[in-house]
Amino acid sequence: MIPGVEGTAAPAATGVATGTAAPYGRARTLIAQGRTAEAEALLLAWRPANRAEEHQRLWALAVLMRDTGRPEKALRYLEPLVAARPDVGAFRLALGEVLQSLGQDERAAFHLRQAGGGTLNADQRDRVQRSLSGLDQGRVWSGHLAFSLEPESNPFKATSDRTVVIDGREFTLRDSARARSATGLGIEAGLAYAPRIAANTRARLALSLDATLYDGDAPNDVQARAEVGLLHGALETGRSKASLSFTRRWIDGRGFSNAPGVTLGYARMLSQRGRIEAAATVEWHDHDTFAALDGPRTLLFLGYSHAVTPQLLLRVGLRGERTAAEVASYSLTAGELSLGASYAFKGGMMVSFDLGLRRAEYDAPAPLFGKTREDDRVTATLRLLHRRLNVRGFAPVLELEAERQTSSVGFYGYENFAASIGLTREF
Fold this sequence. Notes:
Layout (H helix, E strand, L loop, with lengths): L9 H5 L8 H10 L3 H10 L5 H17 L3 H14 L4 H13 L3 H12 L5 H16 L3 E12 L10 E4 L2 E4 L9 E12 L2 E3 L2 E14 L6 E14 L3 E14 L2 E16 L4 E14 L7 E13 L4 E12 L8 E13 L4 E17 L6 E15 L8 E13 L6 E13 L1
Antiparallel strand pairs: 1-4, 1-17, 2-3, 4-6, 5-6, 6-7, 7-8, 8-9, 9-10, 10-11, 11-12, 12-13, 13-14, 14-15, 15-16, 16-17
Helix pairs in contact: 2-3, 2-4, 3-4, 4-5, 5-6, 6-7, 6-8, 7-8
């Protein structure tokens, strides 16, 4: 008997008898005897006479692939099956579990919540709750590792103007102070440990590294971060987060800044498809050699994401920033609106697009220029990830970004076009 097919799952859903003479029944017998290769060959050769038999074939193949350690292939059969029979809770449950095993957590959560609203037996409902709890709380150990090649037209975000006017006089800028292209090697790594310390509470310790090492035409930028905190509750009823962090940054191999901080966050499902998030962070920036930038930085975030379909996710976010630097000309107040969408195609391709609109106003005139800065920035990012294509667990990812900033002080305006081509892995 195929695990997960017995009882009311496939037979009751399709309404087709499953006698041992039918390919479906013969496949179940072969699997019960441990002859999985023969069962697979039989199911692949089967040409169903009607839709109900096709649903049985897809279900049997999906469960066979899942239970023989081939979740990517199971996904190929489960996706069209759920599309054809979205009313069958057992099908959605299996799809959610497979997506969860593949690290596609947002899609997994969507299908698991939809499955919970269907007809399931007690054991299946327990599986839904366990899976949702696992997604919500996360694994005890988790991590990520990514490498990328990153060509940029202006990584230093410098002006492309050849001249600048200071106190009514025109000066010619050196080439080193103007926009120039460079190619970097990006490295991202992270490791988190989140043990359960109470029924609905986890501690969390996380370490991360984010580095871009350029070819000499731009300064290397390296950040290391440590975080310790608590997670309490569940997304269905409200999940809270509190953490302390410390970030150390180096520019071109020299110490640049320290930033201890505290973060409070809250997230909750408003419906089976919609989630709201809010967070507040306060960091104290202490710079090694440029004390004028020292001071607290407060960040506020409010976001909402909505799963329109199992494949399409829409999101909107509002961010606020207040930097109170030691010198008023470096202090600013900023706000940003972000809009985004993600779509998961059949076959494993995932595409995301994000648009950000940011406005920043400074407290005092910029040094040398005698004018107060007001910056407007537009950022557009396209990201393509293929989860089924992988090299030793690393999936290929391509990211394209266009950024343009205009400023009341022309020297601070710039354009930058960047690409990132690399491999990423979550574990």
